Amino acid sequence: MTPVPSVVNGNAIEFHNVSFRLANGHELLRALNLEVKTGETLVLLGRSGSGKTTTLKLINHLLAPTAGEVRVNGRSTRDWDAIRLRRSIGYAIQDVGLFPHFTVARNIAVVPQLEAWPKDRVQHRIQELMQLVGLEPALAARYPRELSGGQRQRVGVARALAADPPILLMDEPFGALDPITRAELQREFASLQQRLCKTVVFVTHDLREAVRLGTRIALMENGGLATLLAADEFLRSADERVSNYVKAFGSDLNGDSKGGCK
Which neighbouring-strand residues pair with 236? Predict the structure, then answer.
C-alpha cells in the first residue's frame, strides 16, 4: 500500500492558481487559491454554477485542473495514483449513490473489502459505524430501497467513513431531505466531527447549514473565490457579497455556528 504523505504546513489540501475549463472552452473554475487546514470543516458556499462541486471533484482527481495545481497532503493530484488517492478520501453526495443490489452492510464494507481487510475487522467496522451514525443493527441486512431517505444518508456517511479516511468530501449530502431530518443529520454530523476531527470539505448553497457545520466558509461566485471567513465572522461581514447572501435568508442566524473539530 502506498503510504500517505505527511501534512505540509498544517494544510491537508491546497489549490494553487487552479482553473478548470470544459472541452468547449467554458470556464467552470478560474485561478482558485485555497487552503484547507487539517481537521477543519471548510464549507464551500454559493449558488448553483458557482464552482463548488467542480472544486470538490478536483480534490479526489475526478477532474484534473487545466491550469494550476491541487495538492493533497503535500502531493500534486497528478502525482498520486488516482485509485489510492480516492480510497484515502471519503465521498458523500446528495443522491447517496448506494449500490441498490448490496445490503447496508455490504455498502458500508465496499472500501475496506477493496483494501483486503480481514473479515472480522470488516464486520467490526460495520457494526461500529452503524452505531456511530445512529442506525439500528437490524438494518444491516436491508437494501437501500427498504430505507428512508434519512437512513440512506446515514449509510452514505458510514460508507464514506468506512476505511477511516483522513479527508471527507461532502457534496450537499443532506440537500434532498425534509427540514426536520436534515436538521437532525446536521446535528449528528457536527457531533461526529467534534469526535473524529476529519478534514472536511462540505458543499452547500444553504447558509444556515454552512454556519452550523463550518469552521470557515468560502463563498464562491462565478467560478472564483469571493471571500473566505471564519463561520462566526461570516455573519458579521461588511462585504457586500456576503451581506447580500445573508440578507437573502431573511432570518437571524447569529449563534448557529457549531461546526468544527474540538
Answer: none
Q: Directed axis angle between helix 119-132 and helix 149-161, to 10°? A: 130
All domains of the chain in start order, with CATH: 38-61+83-249 (3.40.50.300)
Whole-structure pTM value: 0.90
Q: How is residue 30 written as a grid cell?
A: 478560474
Contact 34, 72 (CB under 8 A): no
Sorted by sequence, the CB contacts under 8 Å of residue 237 that are 6+ apart come out as: 227, 229, 243, 246
Do 194 and 115 contact (CB within 8 A), yes or no?
Answer: no
Distance CA 247, CA 244 (A): 5
Q: What is the pLDDT of residues 223-253, one digit of tens each?
A: 999 999 999 899 888 888 888 888 887 655 6
Convert 207-255 into a string of H (helix), E (strand) and C (coil): HHHHHHHCCEEEEEECCEEEEEEEHHHHCCCCCHHHHHHHHHHCCCCCC
CB contact burial 14-24 (16+ within 10 A = b; e otherwise): bbbebbbeeee
**Per-residue pLDDT for 258 more than 80?**
no
- Mean pLDDT (the chain, rounded): 90
